[in-house]
Amino acid sequence: MTDKPALTLYLAEPRGFCAGVVRAIEIVELAIEKWGAPVYVRHEIVHNQHVVDELRAKGAVFVEELDDCPTDRPVVFSAHGVPKAVPAEAERRNLIYVDATCPLVSKVHLEAERHFRNGLQTVMIGHSGHPETVGTMGQLPSGEVILVETVVDVGRIMPRDPDRVAYITQTTLSVDDTADIVAALAARFPKIIGPQKKDICYATTNRQAAVKAMAPLIEALLVVGAPNSSNSKRLVEVGSAAGCPYAMLVQTAADIDWRSIEGAKTVGLTAGASAPEVLVDQVIAAFRERYDVTTEQVVTAEENVSFKVPRVLREAS
């Protein structure tokens, strides 16, 4: 017998690392292996402090701009992607650089370039200031990409030719919110051209679907992720929209507000695409200290995606 209250912990599957994040971390580790420390990384390689701290301990130095990188050390560009001006500047300075941009973000970059070549102005659905949005908009000349964040924004934009527009999206958005914005764009610009396949990536879509499936079963939802992680924040929003009475983002087990879930008998747990499983394990352990925990998996998809690292890192030193 135990005097701990009973609690069922529903674990979302899939959760945590996506293929783009695994590849980006591997790129930094292989770069340190190949060239030795330090290896500079422009921006957080992925948005998770635990990951950044582990790589820093191995010899990565995180900076915000190329100006902070010496010319005699390699630099890695983050998984979020960078404007075209960044590799151009790296080449001008004769820097060794490795691009860890997620291939699914690169796909959106190529779409934007194709629209530009076809004489279309591009509308990007994304979050202002997010590195992925900055990087994607920076693939084209100034003024060629118009950013919208909400349905209201759609009514305000003034493309130069309403019949010659296309749209792309950030890969980590809310699937439902984006669908509403796409519908508004299609209503205002009937000839707008969209991607052949949705730009929101498989990992974002799958993690949101798992939260939706879990929502009717739980009284509270915890999302393990960083406050600057777009896909993690979207999971909290999706949980709330799906009816979770309480949905909270936590970076680590130490961030759990136990008073807010006091009395709950069912809690859902998931993790954003840049959150390592070790942080989920710590949250589960924290629940086991306080509750008599039964775990249940909520499986909505199986993922077997993987991406190769750049050839320069596959070659022998």
Structure commentary:
- The structure is a single chain.
- It is built from eleven helices and twelve strands.
- The chain has 317 residues and is α/β, with parallel strands linked by helices.
- The chain has three domains: 6-17 and 202-299, Cobalt-precorrin-4 Transmethylase, domain 1 (3-Layer(aba) Sandwich), CATH 3.40.1010; 19-102, Rossmann fold; 104-188, 3-Layer(aba) Sandwich (Cobalt-precorrin-4 Transmethylase, domain 1).
- The strands form three sheets. A five-stranded parallel beta sheet has the order 10-9-11-1-12, sandwiched between helices.
- Helix 9 (230-241) links the parallel strand 9 and strand 10.
- The protein is flat, with a radius of gyration of 21 Å.
- The mean pLDDT is 96.
If you average the pLDDT, what whole number results? 96
Roughly how much helix do the residues carry, as a percent range? 25-40%
Summing up helix and strand content along with how strands pair, one would put the structural category as alpha/beta
Beta-strand percent range? 15-25%
Domain tally: 3
Number of strands: 12
